[in-house]
Amino acid sequence: MSITEENNMEGRKIVVAVDESEESMYALSWCLDNLLSQNHIPTSTLILLYIRPPLDVTGYLFANDVIATMEKHNSDLTNSVMRRAEAVYKNFNTTVAVEKKVGSGDAKYAICTAVEKLGADILVMGSHDYGLFKRALLGSVSDYCAKHVKCPLVVVKRPKAT
């Protein structure tokens, strides 16, 4: 990397979308290896972004303890994802600042909104590599983000096990 390129990296906000999947943890590792390694400027900020599924109980009659249990599950899941992400980045010898952000809602919309609000310079996310049929039914978060985020997007594919 040239000095000019290093100066352009200084102070960058790199957002990595994380979730429960191995693909997102691989994307985080890839980001640390390729964008935030020891050879790069350490003044960048790594932002771990987790979007929880919405907890919408509108129109349903649930006892308070059921709602509390669902909220606790969401909280436990968030903590689990962030602990896994923390374990990944602690394995790297980097002095980069790390921030954790949690949102809620439909991932594709919430990620795009968060990236804009955070002023991200780049978004990194893993590819679940759904087939054509599943992608048509579920939609692709990375496809949506590629069309709607204003910063560059890196979609990282995890190598297939041989």
Write the topology of this structure.
Blueprint: H1 3-9, E1 13-18, H2 22-34, E2 45-52, H3 64-90, E3 97-104, H4 107-118, E4 122-127, H5 132-138, H6 141-148, E5 153-157
Parallel strand pairs: 1-2, 1-4, 2-3, 4-5
Helix pairs in contact: 2-3, 4-6
Describe this structure in words.
The protein has 162 residues and is an alpha/beta fold. 46% of the residues lie in helices and 20% in strands. Strands 3-2-1-4-5 form a five-stranded parallel beta sheet, sandwiched between helices. β1 (13-18), α2 (22-34) and β2 (45-52) form a beta-alpha-beta unit. It is globular and about 50 Å long.
List the keywords.
162 residues; alpha/beta; 5-stranded parallel sheet; 6 helices; 46% helix; disordered N terminus
Describe the structure in brief:
With 162 residues, this protein is an alpha/beta fold.
